Amino acid sequence: MNSNGPDQDKLDRVVAEARQAREEREQGYRERALKMYPWICGRCGREFTHANLHELTVHHRDHNHDNNPADGSNWELLCLYCHDNEHQRQIEQATGSRDGQSRTATHNPFADLAERLKKG
Length: 120
Prior knowledge:
Blueprint: H1 6-36, E1 56-60, E2 75-79, H2 80-95, H3 113-119
Antiparallel strand pairs: 1-2
């Protein structure tokens, strides 16, 4: 038993099972995609070999990792960098900002423009 108690043991077991299931699911569609498509990043055109194939990822076009049609129509192979960039773009689009944080201006440099023009 874990020193943190039975609840922690159960949580650790559930997390481990979820990770294993995800890895098995990913391995299945990854292997299929690698057999189906040339080992080239769909964005930057970088070519891959067995030596660096671990840097080529499967991107789900609709961002649903459970949508894995047999024809591969929801997949594209992307290098790690382009894949990260694609997901960052999705976050930015959803939040309306570059860093994922929605912001509103707190300073209005023209707030007293009319008053300044009167003085000038």
